[in-house]
Specification:
By secondary structure, this protein is an alpha+beta fold. The chain has helices at about 5-20, 40-55, 55-65, 130-155, and strands at about 90-100, 105-115, 115-125. It is globular. The N and C termini lie far apart (about 60 Å).
Length: about 160
C-alpha cells in the first residue's frame, strides 16, 4: 500500500475544507498542532454540520461509541479517549485540542431533546479556561432559548 505524503494529505484537507464551506480555514500540518493552522468558529461550525450530516462514524469514534476494530486489531492497545463528554449520553462526538495560539479548544456536537424530537447542537470553544463547564453553559443557554421559543410558538 502507498500513502500520500504529508504535503499531499494537507492539500487534500484544505480542498475538503473549501468544499464543505470552511471559507477561512487553512491547514499546514495533518496533526493540527501548528499555530499556522487557522479556522474560525464559523469554519468549525461548518465542519460540525458536515460531520453530523455525512460522517457520523467519525463522531461515534470520538465519542467512544464506535467499534475500535473497524480495520482489524488496533495497532495501539493502550489508547484512551480524552474527550471530556465521552460519558454524556447526549454527546454525539467532537474533539478537544490545545495549542499555544488557540489555547484549549473544543468542537462538540450534542443531540438535545426538545419536545418529542432531538436537535443537534454544535458547541465551538476557543481559548477556554474550562471546556467542560463552558460547553455545559452554552448547552444550557441553547436549551433555554429553544424551550422559550417553543413555548411562545405554542401560545
Amino acid at each position: 500500500a502507498t500513502y500520500p505524503s504529508s504535503r499531499t494529505f494537507v492539500a487534500r484537507m484544505n480542498e475538503k475544507a473549501t468544499a464543505i464551506g470552511m471559507a477561512h480555514g487553512k491547514f499546514v500540518d495533518p496533526a493540527g498542532v501548528s499555530n499556522d493552522n487557522v479556522a474560525t468558529p464559523s469554519d468549525l461550525f461548518r465542519l460540525a454540520q458536515y460531520l453530523y450530516s455525512n460522517r457520523q462514524f467519525i463522531l461515534r469514534m470520538t465519542a467512544g461509541t464506535a467499534s475500535t476494530r473497524i480495520y482489524g486489531e488496533p495497532a495501539f492497545s493502550n489508547l484512551e479517549n480524552f474527550n471530556v463528554f465521552a460519558d454524556d449520553p447526549r454527546f454525539v462526538g467532537g474533539k478537544i485540542g490545545k495549542t499555544t495560539g488557540a489555547g484549549n479548544t473544543g468542537l462538540f456536537i450534542f443531540e438535545i431533546p426538545f419536545g418529542d424530537t432531538k436537535r443537534p447542537i454544535a458547541v465551538v470553544l476557543l481559548d477556554s479556561a474550562n471546556l467542560h463547564d463552558d460547553a455545559l453553559i452554552l448547552i444550557r443557554q441553547a436549551t433555554e432559548f429553544y424551550s422559550l421559543n417553543e413555548n411562545a410558538a405554542q401560545e
